[in-house]
Automatic annotation (TrEMBL):
<dbReference type="Pfam" id="PF00106">
    <property type="entry name" value="adh_short"/>
</dbReference>
<protein>
    <submittedName>
        <fullName>SDR family oxidoreductase</fullName>
        <ecNumber>1.-.-.-</ecNumber>
    </submittedName>
</protein>
<feature type="domain" description="Ketoreductase">
    <location>
        <begin position="6"/>
        <end position="151"/>
    </location>
</feature>
<comment type="similarity">
    <text>Belongs to the short-chain dehydrogenases/reductases (SDR) family.</text>
</comment>
<keyword id="KW-0560">Oxidoreductase</keyword>
<dbReference type="InterPro" id="IPR002347">
    <property type="entry name" value="SDR_fam"/>
</dbReference>
<dbReference type="GO" id="GO:0016491">
    <property type="term" value="F:oxidoreductase activity"/>
</dbReference>
<dbReference type="InterPro" id="IPR057326">
    <property type="entry name" value="KR_dom"/>
</dbReference>
<dbReference type="InterPro" id="IPR036291">
    <property type="entry name" value="NAD(P)-bd_dom_sf"/>
</dbReference>
<dbReference type="InterPro" id="IPR020904">
    <property type="entry name" value="Sc_DH/Rdtase_CS"/>
</dbReference>
Amino acid sequence: MTVKNKVIVITGASSGIGEASAKLLAENGAKVVLGARRAERLAAIVNDIEAAGGQATYQVTDVTKQADVDSLVQLAQSTFGGLDVIFNNAGIMPSSPISALHTDEWDAMIDINLKGVLHGVAAVMPIFTAQKHGQIITTSSVAGIKSFAGAGVYGATKFAVRNLMEVIRMESAQEGTNIRTASLYPAAINTELLHTITDEKTKQGMDAFYQQVGISPQAVANVVNFAVDQPEDVNVNEFTIYPTKQV
Ligand SMILES: NC(=O)c1ccc[n+]([C@@H]2O[C@H](COP(=O)([O-])OP(=O)(O)OC[C@H]3O[C@@H](n4cnc5c(N)ncnc54)[C@H](OP(=O)(O)O)[C@@H]3O)[C@@H](O)[C@H]2O)c1
């Protein structure tokens, strides 16, 4: 079973990597179910997909709430009659030095980038286990495979989800449930992510860096599409996506 006709839930689908992935997957025949907090953005993306002949629906979803993610998954099943893939992509990156003690932002990153992914996992695990089929794709980051000054807590959440994806893959192989996982490690991708940085000095540095090297989220969407397109017995599980110009 390739991308065509797969039912795919995508969180963080209202902009950037999630939006680009939703559009590409729908173009290739997937039925996509979009979740994020901004309703107007989601509605506009669903309109674009339908105007291009694709199938999509959306529901306002806050990934910090298990009930919201459960409900998004139920919407996929009731609208399209099943579920094949969840793309846990919602995330924020209010980076700052640890010494600045932006502890509210630490909490928000843990709630969205880590617990949000766990909520996605918990929502699909009973379905995937029962049907012995399913794929969980999660957007980690290059900050999830190496350390960056200024990204201590962000990186901690991204290292954590990397571990989670690998353990789910291993346990599923042990349990014979055929659940495949993939972690994406994008580097500088031009999206709205830098809007979440409140630390002025960090923001200036990151804005300048992204202007210099950043690439389109389409690059990540292409990789998501590739992962979904693999045969059932193939688990492609780790992808770094760098701008060619980025060191
Ligand atoms: N851009 C990069 O350079 C880069 C590099 C490595 C990893 N990443 C990761 O890529 C993922 C996507 O980010 P992006 O770069 O595409 O940035 P983006 O354009 O800012 O997209 C982030 C998405 O997450 C959603 N989101 C944030 N909080 C949420 C919540 N509580 N509940 C549901 N959705 C929420 C946002 O939608 P709403 O605001 O409408 O909820 C938006 O759709 C993130 O996990 C990010 O950490 C990005």
